[in-house]
Amino acid sequence: MNSPRIRRGVAAAGGVLLACVLLPVSAQADPADTGSLGVVDIDPGTGTVRRLARLDGFLTGPSKAAPESIARTYLVANRSVVGLTKSEIAALRLRKDYVDIEGTHHLSFVQSVGGVELTGNGLKVHIARDGRIIAIDGTPVAGLPASVGTAKVAAPPTSSEGDRVRQVVVNTAAGPKLAWEVTDTDEGYQSVVDATDGTVLSRRSLVAEHHATTWENYPGAPAGGTQQTVSLNKWLPSNAAKLDGNVAHVYTDVNADNTAQASEEVLPNARTSFNFPFTDFSATVGAPCSTQRQCSWDPAVPYSWQANREQNATQLFTYIGTWHDHLAAGPIGFTRAAGNFEAVDGDPVVGEAMDGADTAAGLPDSDHFNNANMATPPDGMSPRMQMYLFNRSASVLAGNSGDAADIVYHEYTHGLSDRLVVDASGNSTIISAQAKAMYEAWSDWYGLDYLVDSGLEQDDPVDGDVREGDYILGGRSVRSEAMDCPVASTEPVCAGNPTAGAGGYTYGDYGKIYSRGGAEIHADGEIWAQTLWDLRATIGSWKSRSLITRAMELAPTDPSYLDMRDSILLADRVVDHGHNQTAIWRTFAARGMGLHATTEGATDITPTEDFTVPRRS
Question: What are the transmembrane regions (predicted)?
Fold first, then answer.
């Protein structure tokens, strides 16, 4: 359902215009009245707009009109660029007007055929607090028919009561079709099934799996590695009988059936106490376990994981609550309005500790160790976080993913990006290679930014000490380089590989980092993570969190690295009056995402890098 897009860049004064046309400044302006950095992407599949923006300003001036009126006025005045007629614009339905913590209105307009919503298309219009239009994105469908008939195939069954099936219209190469959209949280997929013949038109995994690691930090950590008594009152109701509150329901899904049996719930060991001490297995397991990185079970002893079952579930619940609060607070602002995870809205996190640990052998099978994942369906449906044990090897210690802050925060942050980078229908549009690579990078970045800012991890002047996976991998990074490896670093830990080159990665290294060859989302995500860490070093942690999050809300469908660079530039104009434009351009240009960098979109694994900064920057 997603067509490849035209290779794109930025229209710059004195530069080359690639797959772009320049935009009118206001709703009534002559189309020839343009700025020097206008961006228009036209989706070749629909022939309609994918993104309208100006990197040197706003699309319109301030207005006191209602946001919906501002949006509709602009769309009608610029309908030849948008690709819809007046009547098609009038027929758009405002599904949601989400106002973020900076006062920006993110309006989602959906289309319909015969009263049935067209999913995966539509339009989003982003309007600043003062009424200026920041950007428009989407892929609306022009020339929709009046009807697509009736369903000839019954709605497909789902696995559990929490799943959702709804009738939708989906745009295909053969035209709009009536379909069933099935969101199965138990199986972890969202599928679109042709309502005429039952053909599966698309199937998207909701699960993000990762090999990552690291009490406040992790057991034995120099900072935050000792159990401390904390209050759960803000996350649990009074006299809670299990770990089930507004932010999460955590249990130990040791039989891996995605259902909380009574024996898998964790009950207080006193009326209101969930104080469970940690049993350290380091002495019996041996290296790489140590006093500084303690092991939580013995893979050579069946059922040894039971010793820390209650402790680990309580630890996981506390991490989830901590991260919920961190993301909800400023400057990130992942609130209820933004689509966060709370029982009051029907979608608390379902946290499954020690998933699959209980087999006939008393040990997890090969599908249930050395991993963790988070499956995030649309707003109003609970995400599922599955945390596994780690099996001891020469380089991996016998730990538990639910004991490691960076793993839990990484997984939860997938939910942040899945809820903010969405189409007008509210479905995540993190689909293709570059978008998925940023998906991994965001999860690494937000977690490590917090841990460093809190003093739980260090970012010393020497390059290469900000590492994802430090706990489980005994002081090494699960990535090929540390996150704080700048371009041209000479530190051995920033040596990269012969294919990609040494000293911090650039956009031209995309598809060259993975040790086995070819593109790989975790490996290629290192480019984006290192770039964002550079941005953090330049403009600070607080401001970086703000701009990176606001940029997600401004993201077009299935964004590329350049789309998100542009979104950060747009976010800076909203949040900080454009004061950081020069710093942002220089940061991205240093990583090969300069003015003349190009890409064919998120599917492109051979983008062209460029190190040019706009002249005024």
Answer: none
Strand partners, 386: 352, 373
Alpha helices in 107-240 (DSSP H): none
**For the chain, how far is it from start to end, CA to CA, in angstroms?**
39
User: 204, 188 in Cβ contact below 8 A?
Assistant: no
* Amino acid occupying residue 117: E
Which tokens sit at 490?
């000479």
How many whole angstroms separate alpha carbon 43 and alpha carbon 51? 9
CA 93 vs CA 100, 115, 137: distances in Å: 20, 11, 15
Q: Which of 440, 464, 458 is nearest to 529 (CA)?
A: 440
Contact 305, 264 (CB under 8 A): no
Measured CA to CA, the distance from residue 496 to residue 120 in angstroms comes to 38
Please state which architecture CATH assigns to domain 433-590: Orthogonal Bundle (1.10)
| Residue 403 half-sphere exposure toward CB, CA atoms < 13 A | 32
Which two structure tokens, joined as six digits, stand for 479? 């990535």
- Which phi and psi angles does 564 have, rounded to 5°? -75, -30
Q: Do the domains at 207-428 and 433-590 have one common CATH topology?
A: no
Strand duo 248-252 + 349-353: pairing: parallel
Kindly report the pTM of this predicted structure. 0.87
* DSSP 3-state of 88: helix
Q: Do 21 and 43 meet the contact criterion of CB atoms below 8 Å apart?
A: no
**308 within 8 A of 301, measured Cβ to Cβ:** no
Region of poorest pLDDT, from 49-58, 295-304, 307-316, 498-507: 498-507
Domain at 207-428: CATH code: 3.10.170.10
d(CA 62, CA 591): 34
Q: How far apart are the C-alpha atoms of 352 and 437, rounded to whole Å?
A: 25
Domain range annotation of the chain: 38-138, 207-428, 433-590
Cα four-point dihedral sign 459, 464, 466, 471 = negative
Upper half-sphere CA count for residue 53 (Cβ side, 13 Å): 31
